């Protein structure tokens, strides 16, 4: 999948943006009067360049987010480890608070728990796009036990209540 944001400004200075997601090799038709004739993407070439845009009275600046999502993927992969719990979060999010509270009940070995605040990061949107691709959800928290995403705050709470969370933490060697 490829993620694009089209940023437009007309002669009066009005601005608009459209976020688009499409699969490799498909054409994109946005229902807002923006009609790219053809957008191509192959698995080998992850950079997307529209051959032409028809936007009356608008000048388009087109940014391809596939590279940013790839960079987000690399960042996430450097943070995940088979014997560690990693939580990507936003501190003001109530589900993130729930996940932190649940995990704080367990005595984890030093270096086996990492909270990564994505708030205000320049790549926050790209990280969330990558979470969508990787886990099926863009929301935070994204809780990884080892290299496996177990979901968000509610999911961690359910795992805790069922006793499965402690088993998972023991299985990766994170508990003291």
Explain how this protein is built.
With 176 residues, this protein is α+β, with helices and mostly antiparallel strands. It has 2 domains: 2-64; 72-171, Glutaredoxin. The chain contains 5 helices and 9 strands, in the order βββββαβαβαββαα. Strands 7-6-8-9 form a 4-stranded mixed beta sheet. The chain has a 3-stranded antiparallel beta sheet with strand order 2-1-5. Helix 1 (66-79) crosses helix 3 and helix 2 (94-104) packs parallel to helix 4 (153-162). Mean pLDDT is 76; it is low at 21-65.
Secondary structure layout:
Blueprint: E1 2-10, E2 15-22, E3 35-36, E4 53-54, E5 58-64, H1 66-79, E6 85-89, H2 94-104, E7 113-117, H3 124-135, E8 142-145, E9 148-151, H4 153-162, H5 164-171
Parallel strand pairs: 6-7
Antiparallel strand pairs: 1-2, 1-5, 3-4, 6-8, 8-9
Keywords: Disulfide bond, Electron transport, Redox-active center, Transport
Function: Has a glutathione-disulfide oxidoreductase activity in the presence of NADPH and glutathione reductase. Reduces low molecular weight disulfides and proteins.
Pfam families: Glutaredoxin
CATH fold type of the largest domain: Glutaredoxin
What best-fitting shape do the alpha-carbon axes yield?
globular
Portion of residues within helices: 25-40%
Evaluate the radius of gyration. Answer: 20 Å
The CATH architecture of the largest domain comes to: 3-Layer(aba) Sandwich
What would you call the structural class?
A: alpha+beta
Q: First CA to last CA: what distance?
A: 41 Å
Strand content: 25-35%
Query: What is the CATH superfamily classification of the largest domain?
Result: Glutaredoxin
Order of strands across the widest beta sheet? 7-6-8-9
Number of domains: 2
CATH class of the largest domain: Alpha Beta
Number of strands: 9
Helix count, per DSSP? 5
Largest sheet: 4 strands, mixed
Order of helices and strands: EEEEEHEHEHEEHH
pLDDT under 50 segments (min length 5)? 21-65
Average pLDDT rating: 76
GO cellular component, one term: mitochondrion
Keywords: Disulfide bond, Electron transport, Redox-active center, Transport
Protein name: Glutaredoxin-1
GO molecular function, one term: glutathione disulfide oxidoreductase activity
